[in-house]
Amino acid sequence: MTAAPGPAQPVLEVEDLRVRLRTPRGPADVVNGLSYSVGPGETVAVVGESGSGKSVSVLALLGLLPARVATVTGRALLQGEDLLTMKPERLRQVRGPGAGMVFQDPMTSLNPVLTVGRQLVEGIRAHSDMDKAAARRRAAALLGEVGLPDPVGALDRYPHELSGGMRQRVIIAIALSNSPALLIADEATTALDVTVQAQIIDLVAKLQAEHGTGVIWITHDLGVVAGIADRVLVMYGGRCVEDGTVDDVLENPSHPYTRGLLGALPDLAQPAVDGVVPDLVTVPGVPPAPTDLPEGCVFWPRCPVRGDARCETEQPPLTVIGSADVALPHRAATWCTEAAPGSGSTATPVAPHAGGGSR
Ligand SMILES: Nc1ncnc2c1ncn2[C@@H]1O[C@H](COP(=O)(O)OP(=O)(O)OP(=O)(O)O)[C@@H](O)[C@H]1O
Ligand code: SF4
Ligand SMILES: [Mg+2]
After folding, report:
1. Are residues 35 and 118 in the same domain?
2. Structurally, how many domains does the chain consist of?
3. Are 238 and 136 in the same domain?
4. Which of 89, 155, 254, 356 could pair with 332 as two cysteines, CB 3.0-4.6 Å apart?
């Protein structure tokens, strides 16, 4: 008798990820106990203010932080294999077909002295048995798919001959070239105009449908999150302060920080009053320095609704809000889920981005 298929194995399972960096100002606790998983074909959006640890958390997964500066602990199982204890040689094999990454800064990802074609073709051939001509055809097709004009001509150009947006598209093509099991996109489309952004988002959705690729999409654009994400993870001070399905988090934000983030969104439909467009709501204050995190709740110094005696002294754990009896429960790390008037609790649901998928 054939056993009934169980729930799909996650592509990535991160458990209690912590990153401490050595800095001139002392140890910086940049990522503090992050746990999440990414299922096959699933898109997990990671959001949070600048400096909340989004990039460091994914660089740590792929062993891309310098060992003399960074101490990384926890577990990160990519298709069952722990990335954090993997030998460097195995990690190099895994980057590409296992995990592809689009970095925030395109200039650091391309080799300035090699043509675009050589960089793409070498990446394709390193993980397949394609001959050079076939790999070159595949490379040109990929450049066309990411919307680069004259893809065949672009193969013979050097990175400095391309615009920033074009370079970013080359990096996206490289990351997609081996149809990775996991794609990490760190502000991948921020520098691109909306039509190209929509094209890239569609391309990633196609990859997910065809190969079951799990995606971690780091972005500041909550419109994109609403359009493409299945799940959202809100980071603050190196911690996850809220996570859940995209509907739970964007329509019923529970953590005061998430409410603040959503309240800070511009509302293009809001009419001007006497010719004056109302100011945006902001989250007052600045994020904590990772060298000097608050003792209690990490959001305490800025929280508009702090009221519980524990706020100042104890970090609240992630706790399920509502039903725990669902595959993806909605969780928040706060002692207080009651919102004060004016705290942004009536956050408007975010309109899906024009380029968003159908999820
Ligand atoms: N090499 C480094 N040495 C020391 N501190 C670092 C280093 N890289 C990052 N940091 C610090 O780690 C923290 C998290 O940085 P990170 O780049 O992960 O933020 P982020 O959430 O990706 O922000 P952004 O939205 O601006 O990209 C910041 O306080 C940053 O100053
Ligand atoms: S625990 Fe307290 S300080 Fe922290 S977010 Fe909740 S109410 Fe605010
Ligand atoms: Mg970043």
Report:
1. no
2. 2
3. no
4. 254
3-state secondary structure of 338: coil
Is the pLDDT assigned to residue 348 strictly greater than 70?
Answer: no
Is residue 253 domain-shared with residue 318, that is, in the same domain?
yes
Q: Are residues 42 and 142 in the same domain?
A: no
Q: Whose CA is nearest to atom 26 of ligand 1?
A: 50
Closest C-alpha to ligand 2, atom 3: 300
Nearest ligand 1 atom to the CA of 51 is 19
| Sheet containing 26-38, strands listed edge to edge, beginning at the edge strand earlier in sequence | 26-38, 12-23, 70-78, 81-82
Spatial separation of the C-alpha atoms in residues 21 and 293, rounded to whole Å: 14
CA–CA dist 244, 234 (Å, integer) = 9
Q: Is residue 275 part of a domain?
A: no
Residues 211-251: pLDDT tens digits?
A: 899 999 999 999 999 999 999 999 999 999 999 999 999 99
CB 336 less than 6 A from any atom of ligand 2 = yes
How long a stretch of residues is the chain? 359
Q: Is the CB of 109 under 6 A from ligand 1?
A: no
Contact 328, 231 (CB under 8 A): yes
Testing ligand 2's pocket by substitution, the residue of 312, 331, 334, 338 carrying the most ligand atoms inside 8 A of its CB is 334
Residue 305 in contact with ligand 2 by CB distance below 6 A: yes
Q: Does 356 map to a domain?
A: yes
